[in-house]
What does this fold into?
Amino acid sequence: MVRTELQNAADAAALAASMRLPDAAAAVAEARAIAAQNLPPAKHGQVLRDADFLVGTWDPSSRTFTPGGGSPNAVRVTLRRATANGNPLPTFLAAALGTDFFDLAGKATAGPAKEPACLMAMHPTRKHTFYLVGPVRITAPDCHIYANSNHPDDVVDPKDPKAFVVAKSIQAIGYGHHYLQNLTPPLEYAPYLIPDPLAHLSLPPSGGCTANRLRINGGSTTLAPGTYCGGLEIKGGATVDLRAGEYHVKGGPLVVDNAALRGQDVVIFLSDSAAELDFTRATVQLSGRRSGPYAGIVLFSVRSDMVHVFDRSRLELEGVAYLLRGRVSWINQGTPANNAKWTTMIVDGFTFDGSGEIRINFAPHTSAVPYPTALKVVPRNGFALLD
It folds into this structure.
């Protein structure tokens, strides 16, 4: 009973204190008030010592709390019934336990609420990083859209009067231009630049060539994991199925032209700047890795300047398409089916053209492909427990 009371009070104190940041003095005062309210000193004694209230930095990628730092974003509160506090709990089993008292504690870490990223345009200064040129509609009602650019007025830009975006939230540091009334909900100023949330992941070594300049024209083919040097081209109505595993493409583009590429529990590494994506009138149905260091990832690119083209294609990417420094040119036609349960795209910037509707699903809880917790980085109103 007392253990539960301590934990509940620690949760409440940490949440309340985090709302007072960056004012550390106000935060600790709030934590003391909430602790005393939930655990009256007349009954429980001093449950919060100075050393048990910490202001620091929460790293969502490693899920670690580090005390101190110049820009604190979280607090950690530990409430104790302990000998060190002068308020240990008496025990009724003194003879059996060999002691008259024992110690209990409750600990909680809290900070600003973060939501999962869905569509992220990462360039810090360029204009038009979320640019709708033609009368295309993006329907992503469960998707948080975030643009890092600080360009003063032209980051999110529905330039065409018939261009529309529906999302869960739309934020940009530098705001937007043209038909902003076509954005639902309204565009918000983003509070800060979000650094690369997958910076902790490195591109793995590609190894020797499994195939060199492989070109598949028509028919049905199954490929095994490996390294495809000189690029990989799939054309002429071909259907290519990928076995589960890791694929590397380097030395040339990954082309799917009037053809289909399918695979489950796969990740494709674009291992050099030549390995750009070129999907034209293609059907690409890929779901990411289900376990291991790249769990949740379906595409992972080298961190080099690249251009990727999706032209009148059906894209079903279940997982994270990590194309950090890739500019994506997405030309849509009609309303392509999308059965992927969730998609996250982290790119340099998006340009949408064509017509019709692009549907982006975001329901990770329904998928066998796990959502990486490191991608819970989108700031929203409110505060949350972090561990």
The chain has a mean pLDDT of 93. The longest strand covers residues 314-332. Residues 132 and 352 are 5 Å apart (CA to CA). The chain has four helices and 29 strands.
